[in-house]
C-alpha cells in the first residue's frame, strides 16, 4: 500500500504476527534484486523467538523495536555458502578478502532495500537499525554466524501501530551533481542546510542538547569522533574474525 | 511499469534521452530512503556528456552500456558535504574513519536500489555495474571526487531495447535462516545448487570455459583469488586516498 515516496520508518507495531507465507513471498520477490555474477552473496536470519530477540536487543542499544517487533531480520553479507559450494565442486574459493566483503555487503544491502519496499507495499512497517555495524561481534555470536558471514543491516518488521510525520530531506541540488562532482562552496552549504536548520523540531533539539548549532548535536552528541574511531576498530576486528581481512 | 518480481537487468537501450525532470523526480522520490540520523550520506553524479562517459568506460572494463546508455549514475558514499557543514557551524566532524565509510556506503546503496525500483516502475531499464569498486581510483579521478567521497555503485539507465529472460535464483531455503544461522551441510549445498547446475546455459558455460564444474568457472575465470586480493589492496588504497582510513 505504501509507496517509496510516502514511506516513513515505523517503530511501533501491532502485536499481530506476520504470516510466514507472506514473509516468504516478500523475501522470494526481493531475491529478484541483481547481485554480483548472480551469486546472491547474502543470507537473512529471521528471528521471531522472544528469547533470541531479547539477546539481540543490547547489541542494538536496547532500541525497543527489537523485542517489540514480531520479526527481526538480520541481513548478512555471505560468502560462506558460495565458498562451501566451491569446495564441494573441486574449485578453490578466493573470497576471504576485503573486496569480497564489499561485494557481498553490496548484494545484501540492495536485497534489504527491495525487501523493505515490497513489505511496505504490502502494508507492513519497517525500521532500519543502523546499530548493526556498531557491535557486530555480539550479533555474530548471538546469531551464530560462521566465517565469511557478516551482519550488515537489521530491519524490524510488523504491522504499523503509528503513522508519524515524514521527516525533512535536503533539496535535490544538495545531492545531485552533473557530469562530474562539483564541490560545495560555503554558500552552497548554507543554502542546502537552511531548511533543515529552520525547523522548530531541530531548533528544539539544539536547545535540549545545550548546543549552539544543529551540526554540533551530530558531532558532539549523536555521532562523535571518539565513538566512530572506537567502532571502526571493532568493525575491523570483526571483519578479521569473520575471515574477510588478514 | 515493471515490478521488482518481474525485473531484469537491461543492457541495451533506445537512444531516447531521459527527460531531466523525470530523472529529477525519481531521484527526489528515492531520497525518501531512510538514512543514518537522516544525514543522507550520499551523492549521485549523473553523467550524460559523451566525453566523460567515454573516460569512465575503461574503469568499467569497457562494458558497452557505459557509453551507450543515455545516463550513467555514479552513487557515492559522501561524508564531504556533512563535514563541510559541520566546519561551517563550529562543529568538529569526526567522519574520517572506516565506520563512517561503512555508514555512508549503506546509505548510498539503499538509495541506489530505491532509485532503480522507481526507474523500473516508470518503464526505464537499469543495469548495476559491479565494476565500480574494482577500479575506484580511476572513477574518483574522472569524476573529481573530493576527500570523504567514494563511488560505491554505478547504474546505467535508459529506455529498454531488449527484454531478456529472467535468470535463475537459488531456492528461498538457500538464503533464509530461522532465529539463528544454521550452517550448510554438504547435502544442503547439493540441494541449493542443484537447479542452477542443471540449466543448459550453465552447462554450456562450463564447457566453453573448459572446466569440470560451474563453481570452477567462478573461482578460476570470473572471480579469481588473485584478482580479489589485488583489488582488495587497491580498494584499501583508495579508501586511504579519500581519507576514510589511515
Features:
homodimer; 246 residues; alpha+beta; NADH Oxidase; four-stranded antiparallel beta sheet; 10 helices; 45% helix
- Please report the two chains with the greatest interface, counting residues with C-beta closer than 8 angstroms to the partner's C-beta: A-B, 113 and 113 residues
Uncertain runs of chain A? none
Strand order of the largest sheet of chain A: 1-2-4-3
- SS summary, helix count of chain A: 10
> Quick one: overall form of chain A?
globular
* Oligomer type: homodimer
Any idea of the CATH topology of the domain at 4-165 in chain A? NADH Oxidase
Instruction: Determine and state the CATH class of the domain at 4-165 in chain A.
Output: Alpha Beta
- The CATH homologous superfamily of the domain at 4-165 in chain A is named NADH Oxidase
Provide mean pLDDT of chain A, rounded.
97
Strand content of chain A: 5-15%
Main pleated-sheet profile of chain A: 4 strands, antiparallel
Q: Which CATH architecture of the domain at 4-165 in chain A?
A: 3-Layer(aba) Sandwich
Distance between the termini of chain A: 46 Å
* Rg on CA atoms of chain A, Å: 20 Å
Q: Can you give the helix content of chain A as a percent range?
A: 40-55%
Set out the fold topology.
Two copies of one chain form a homodimer.
Chain A: H1 20-30, E1 42-47, H2 50-56, H3 65-68, E2 71-78, H4 80-88, H5 98-121, E3 125-129, H6 136-142, E4 149-158, E5 176-178, H7 186-198, H8 200-208, H9 214-222, H10 225-241
Antiparallel strand pairs in A: 1-2, 2-4, 3-4
Helix pairs in contact in A: 1-5
